[in-house]
Amino acid sequence: MDLETFLRDVLTPVLDHPEELSVELRKNGKRLDIFLRARQDDRGRVVGRNGRMISSLRSLCKVAGEKQGLHVNLELAEDDVDFGALET
């Protein structure tokens, strides 16, 4: 399953500015880190009410990753965070 396409397909209809959605995947062995970046006024839509949307997305990505033998971590990055600085 292509998680980037999945996340874009799910989030695009929800966002006011879907063209500014950024999805970056970083694979390190069996670990896959996914960083989402959205415009500030769309971030609440990605998180959802009481965090339900981001929690659901994390669960779905985790299960999809497990089927591929991967440990998936999904994060909503702040606008000023450099993805390269988040590498471990």
Commentary on this structure:
There is one protein chain. By secondary structure, this protein is α+β, with helices and mostly antiparallel strands. The chain has a single domain, classed as K homology (KH) domain (GMP Synthetase, Chain A, domain 3), CATH 3.30.300. Helix content is 34%, strand content 23%. It contains three helices and three strands. The chain has helices at 3-11, 43-47, 52-67, and strands at 22-28, 31-37, 71-76. The protein has a three-stranded mixed beta sheet. The two termini are 25 Å apart.
Topology at a glance:
Layout: H1 3-11, E1 22-28, E2 31-37, H2 43-47, H3 52-67, E3 71-76
Parallel strand pairs: 2-3
Antiparallel strand pairs: 1-2
Descriptive keywords:
88 residues; alpha+beta; GMP Synthetase, Chain A, domain 3; 3 helices; 34% helix; globular
Outline:
The protein is of the alpha+beta class and 88 residues long. 34% of the residues lie in helices and 23% in strands.
Query: What sequence of helices (H) and strands (E) makes up the elements?
Result: HEEHHE
Name the CATH homologous superfamily: K homology (KH) domain
CATH architecture: 2-Layer Sandwich
Beta percentage is 15-25%
Number of strands: 3
Question: What structural class do you assign from the helix and strand content?
Answer: alpha+beta
CATH class, anyone? Alpha Beta
Major sheet attributes: 3 strands, mixed
